[in-house]
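Hypothesis: this fold can be encoded by more than one sequence.
Test: take the structure tokens below, design a sequence, compare later.
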């Protein structure tokens, strides 16, 4: 087997781990690398490896057979590097979900036009081979839904806040030290990273153009330790869930939202940095996969798997079908979500509060399944937790708009869907 000559752009958490793994795979030779700071000590032996300041040079170098893009970012230089490589018919491997969420369609067209592989197993769910599972393993199935935990940082934060009682910032700092977070961690926390991944999975599962702008996206900033503990008392875990499903009229709706899941659900039992994704296939039924969703070596494992597939001559269409046949998705909102909801209101602790809220719920056709209020301190803020029965998202939004105006309400209400899976 001839040696494949590799160029790597990006030598951070993932790039360094790929570099180390490739030391055990002599069929791949790293020819050239690029990153921002040549002086940085990365703990890697870069002797004999050419350094290029401009990553796009990797695509132009005649001695580089394959370009691996591990810089991140939804624009240049990652975009121009990948474009240049595909135009020169050089296979590309990337872990960059942000780039694919915005430019996946154009890049897939370019790869197809040039008959060259564009591979991205590491872009979704770290080390779990979720791309291969949906695109190849479940190819015989019509898929009705894909949902689950797609961000290791958020799952780690929610798990650790509940387990240790440590505050959000402390736990986020730990996630950054462990190499889980994006270089801009607001992408993790505000749900953007889950949205990027979900738009890629929707593309594969439903044959639609990845379109980040059509997603409803809500992150985990407003989740408190109190929410995690009260949900636990009620029999649920809180997880940041990405969910894409076909509605009754066949439209694809995509949501990213912190959600409550019953403790019996496999997704609810996916903790720490793990990701857990459930796919509902027409013949196979529900299939659940879990594994390390972030971190250098877990992600590098998927990058190197793509390289090995490439060496075996694999060249599958990036979305499993011609990109120009991908359909469009519909813009989703919480109004489109029918089911049970968790509502946290911060109210002034005084007589008559429930009497003010109840008529609004009644007139919006919302029925309460359970209710918790703790603490007693006259006129001080206190949390009131309600779990509703199944209702329409539209009813919830209507009620919350009115409840917000009551003068017993002391903070923005928190509303989360409850998934009965
Ligand atoms: P990282 O640790 O921040 O590393 C980024 C690397 O890219 C660094 O080596 C940086 O150079 C280099 N770089 C950034 N901008 C550059 C530019 N303009 N020109 C040249 N080099 C540039 O990021 P990471 O965590 O390894 O993530 C890399 C990619 O993998 C991202 O797309 C990310 O979303 C994706 N991903 C990450 C994980 C994870 O768990 N970390 C999991 C799945 C996918 P310097 O080192 O000199 O600063
Ligand atoms: N920041 C991402 C996460 C990396 O925490 O899941 C893996 O894509």
């Amino acid at each position: 087997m001839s040696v494949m000559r590799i160029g790597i752009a990006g030598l951070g958490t993932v790039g360094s781990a790929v570099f180390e793994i490739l030391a055990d795979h002599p069929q791949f030779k790293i020819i050239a690398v690029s990153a921002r700071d040549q002086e940085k000590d990365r703990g890697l032996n870069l002797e004999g490896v050419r350094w290029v300041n401009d990553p796009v040079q990797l695509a132009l170098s005649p001695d580089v057979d394959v370009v691996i893009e591990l810089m991140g970012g939804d624009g240049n230089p990652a975009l121009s590097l990948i474009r240049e490589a595909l135009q020169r018919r050089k296979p590309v491997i990337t872990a960059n979900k942000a780039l694919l969420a915005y430019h996946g369609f154009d890049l897939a067209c370019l790869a197809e036009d040039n008959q060259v592989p564009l591979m991205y197993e590491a872009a979704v769910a770290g080390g779990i081979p979720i791309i291969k599972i949906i695109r190849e393993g479940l190819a015989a199935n019509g898929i009705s839904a894909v949902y689950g935990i797609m961000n290791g940082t958020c799952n780690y934060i929610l798990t650790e806040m509940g387990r240790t009682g440590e505050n959000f910032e402390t736990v986020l700092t730990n996630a950054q030290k462990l190499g889980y977070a994006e270089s801009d961690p607001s992408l993790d926390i505000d749900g953007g990273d889950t949205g990027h991944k979900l738009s890629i999975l929707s593309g594969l599962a439903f044959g639609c153009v990845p379109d980040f702008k059509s997603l409803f996206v809500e992150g985990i900033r407003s989740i408190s330790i109190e929410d995690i503990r009260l949900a636990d008392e009620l029999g649920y875990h809180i997880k940041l869930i990405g969910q894409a499903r076909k509605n009754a009229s066949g439209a694809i709706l995509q949501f990213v939202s912190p959600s409550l899941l019953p403790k019996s659900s496999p997704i609810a039992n996916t903790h720490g940095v793990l990701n857990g994704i459930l796919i509902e296939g027409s013949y196979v039924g529900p299939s659940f996969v879990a594994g390390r969703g972030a971190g250098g070596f877990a992600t590098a494992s998927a990058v190197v798997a793509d390289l090995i597939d490439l060496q075996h001559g694999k060249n599958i269409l990036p979305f499993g079908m011609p990109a120009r046949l991908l359909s469009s998705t519909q813009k989703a909102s919480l109004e489109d979500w029918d089911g049970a909801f968790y509502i946290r209101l911060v109210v002034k602790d005084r007589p008559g509060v429930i009497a003010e809220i109840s008529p609004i719920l009644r007139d919006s056709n919302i029925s309460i399944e359970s209710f918790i209020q703790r603490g007693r301190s006259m006129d001080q803020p206190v949390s009131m937790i309600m779990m509703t029965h199944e209702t329409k998202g539209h009813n919830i939004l209507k009620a919350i708009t009115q409840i917000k105006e009551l003068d017993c309400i002391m903070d923005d209400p928190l509303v989360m869907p409850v998934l009965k899976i």
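The chain has 13 helices and 17 strands. Residues 126, 151-153, 180-182, 188, 193, 293-294 surround L-homoserine (ligand 2) (CB under 6 Å).
Hypothesis status: open.
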